[in-house]
C-alpha cells in the first residue's frame, strides 16, 4: 500500500510488538481477526488470539490462567460436532505450524473480565489489545432502534478500555450482517462520522481473495465448519461469500435458508477505530463498571433503554 495512503490503523500498529487479538462478541468473532493475525505475523510481530466464549463446557476444557480466562490447546479432548470454536481453531493452527494456544474468556461482567484481561496481558507481556467485532453492533451507543447483540460487545469494550499500560484498538468486519439482529446501519455510519470528527476513525480497507492472509482465514473457517457442521458461522460465511464476489440473497450455509440475506462488498471491509473513543460513546458505560455477570449487564442495558428516548430507524438513502 502507498505509504501516504495507509490507513492510520496500520500506522498505529507499526510500533506494536506483542499484540492480543480478541473476539469481543463471542462465537466466531476471533476468526474475524485471523486476516490481521496472519498479516501481523508476517511482519514479524508476536500475535496472540483470544475470544469471548459461548462454549458451555469451557469450565472443564482447559487450564485457568485467571478465574475468567481458560487456556485452550489442541491436546484437550473435544468430540467432533461439539460447539467450541476456540478448540477447533487451536487444532487447525497446530496443523499449520502456528502457535496453537487460544485463550477463552468466560461469560462474565466487566469486573471479572477486566481482571482476566489484566492477567492475560501480564502473562503474555502485551503492549496492544485489538478487539475484533464480527459485525458492527459494537458501535451502538445505547439509544439506537436496534442494538444487535450488545451484552458481550459492551462488556469487552468497557473491560478493555479500563486496562492501563496498553494501546487499545477496535476493528469491525462484516458490514450488514447485523441486519438480522435489527441493527440500523445508518446509525453505524453516523457513529463512524462522529468518530471521524473526533479523530478516532482509523480508516477502512478491503479483504480480497488473492491475499494470503485471507486465504488462510478461509481455510481456518472451513476447517472449523467441517468439525461443527451444525454451527457454521453465519457471520463468517457471509463475509467469505462477500469476499469471493457473491451478492444479494446468497446462502453459503443451510442455517440461513428461509431468510433473506444481503451479501455485499462492504462486508469484506475492516472498519477500524481508537477503542477508547468508541467506549466513551457508550451511554451506559458507568453502570457497566460494577457488573459481575452477564445478567448484571443485561439489567444495565434494560434500565438504560427504559430511561432514554429511542431513536427511530433510518433507511440509508442510496
Automatic annotation (TrEMBL):
It comes from the Bacteria. InterPro entries: DUF1152. This is DUF1152 domain-containing protein.
Amino acid at each position: 500500500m502507498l505509504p501516504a495512503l495507509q490507513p492510520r490503523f496500520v500506522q498505529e500498529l507499526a510500533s506494536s510488538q506483542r499484540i492480543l487479538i480478541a473476539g469481543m462478541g463471542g462465537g466466531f468473532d476471533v476468526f474475524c481477526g485471523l486476516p490481521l493475525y496472519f498479516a501481523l505475523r508476517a511482519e514479524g510481530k508476536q500475535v496472540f488470539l483470544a475470544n469471548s466464549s459461548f462454549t458451555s463446557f469451557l469450565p472443564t476444557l482447559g487450564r485457568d490462567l485467571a478465574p475468567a480466562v481458560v487456556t485452550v490447546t489442541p491436546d484437550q479432548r473435544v468430540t467432533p460436532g461439539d460447539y467450541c470454536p476456540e478448540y477447533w481453531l487451536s487444532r487447525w493452527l497446530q496443523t499449520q505450524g502456528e502457535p496453537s494456544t487460544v485463550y477463552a474468556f468466560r461469560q462474565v461482567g466487566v469486573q471479572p473480565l477486566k481482571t482476566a484481561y489484566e492477567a492475560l496481558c501480564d502473562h503474555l507481556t502485551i503492549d496492544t489489545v485489538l478487539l475484533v467485532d464480527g459485525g458492527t453492533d459494537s458501535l451502538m451507543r445505547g439509544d439506537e432502534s436496534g442494538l444487535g447483540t450488545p451484552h458481550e460487545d459492551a462488556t469487552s469494550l468497557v473491560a478493555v478500555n479500563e486496562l492501563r499500560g496498553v494501546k487499545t484498538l477496535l476493528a469491525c468486519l462484516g458490514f450488514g450482517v447485523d441486519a438480522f439482529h435489527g441493527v440500523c446501519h445508518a446509525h453505524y455510519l453516523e457513529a463512524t462520522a462522529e468518530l471521524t470528527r473526533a479523530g478516532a476513525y482509523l480508516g477502512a480497507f478491503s479483504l480480497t481473495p488473492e491475499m494470503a492472509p485471507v486465504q488462510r482465514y478461509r481455510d481456518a473457517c472451513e476447517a472449523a465448519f467441517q468439525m461443527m457442521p451444525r454451527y457454521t458461522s453465519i457471520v463468517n460465511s457471509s463475509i467469505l461469500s462477500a469476499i469471493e464476489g457473491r451478492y444479494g440473497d446468497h446462502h453459503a450455509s443451510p442455517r440461513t435458508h428461509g431468510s433473506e440475506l444481503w451479501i455485499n462488498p462492504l462486508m469484506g471491509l475492516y472498519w477500524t477505530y481508537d477503542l477508547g473513543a468508541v467506549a466513551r460513546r457508550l451511554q451506559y458505560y458507568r453502570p457497566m463498571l460494577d457488573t459481575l455477570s452477564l445478567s448484571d449487564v443485561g439489567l444495565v442495558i434494560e434500565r438504560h433503554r427504559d430511561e432514554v428516548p429511542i431513536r427511530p430507524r433510518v433507511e440509508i438513502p442510496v
